[in-house]
């Protein structure tokens, strides 16, 4: 709870206001009490000042406490409002609760009533602040783009956004009420609960995301990162938890491909002939980089008047049938070979010097292999490659270039000897 609790106390008896303020201040030094002797003055005060709780008498000359409450509720449906009155009838209490009063307390003799009032104020304010925090989280859940949920203390979803429902493969109505253990597999919910307990015990605990697997309604498993945080009441008690889920399938795929590519680079480095190294690289493009249409163009002769395909994937033959040779100054392949600058074309038909403007290939990666030729990968759709594809292709071709350079040097050395 905040360091101070702002209270507006309205009662037509000024002496009782002063007495109540004095005793309340003794009960809790966080209380800061503003008093007014009429609901009209109380409403004026509410226009210029923010309060955490209103305490009001019932029977006042111009306006009853119920009427005051109804006016307050028009502008603030949830601000704590305690009716503190000498009227002890059940009808008054019922009217107060029906009108939206947070609590009802009958005035008594003696000082015990102020202790009771102080406790009611604290409880009302704590509940109000917790509810406001939950509402803020709810607003965040509704608007955030990532899958997001709120769990109750038992681990059941009380709020889910459309993104989470879409990830799980159901509608929001189905998602709400699900227990987290139904979609967080391999004990992830229990581990999350333990992490939340650590966070509550020590606010300095690392809140960083942790990886879990989410299982969908149709049994698919999605690798994700989840960032969780507790929602606590003002007294520190645990009320709920909020989780933000991010699909990391693409990242995991990249990591697997990169690891497999590292294995390939070791195989490349062990190659002892041009043909072997090229075959290893093209097989890696197909199996590791998942580029179905790929090949290597190399100079047909030392004069380099033509570039010919020296190794291709099976997919490139299916698309083209007979793979064409590239004559001098023809197409993007020749441009990359002569300039040494790679081309990552989202749509090759936008290039006026494309080899064939009617080509079934719509996007291409063209990476120079030093003086040895050009690595080409294609896709039949525009934007067929992403930055990860570009990065991995660069790693593969850089390694192949280094290996072929080393083989050339070894050959030159042998010829010299």
From TrEMBL:
Residues 6-122 form the Response regulatory domain. The modification 4-aspartylphosphate is found at residue 57. The keyword Kinase applies. This is PAS domain S-box protein. Residues 133-177 form the PAS domain. The lineage of its organism: Archaea, Methanobacteriati, Methanobacteriota, Stenosarchaea group, Halobacteria. SMART domains: PAC (SM00086), PAS (SM00091), REC (SM00448). Keywords: Kinase, Phosphoprotein, Transferase. GO terms for molecular function: kinase activity. InterPro entries: Bact_response_regulator, CheY-like_superfamily, GAF, GAF-like_dom_sf, PAC, PAS, PAS-assoc_C, PAS-like_dom_sf. It comes from the Archaea. Residues 208-260 form the PAC domain.
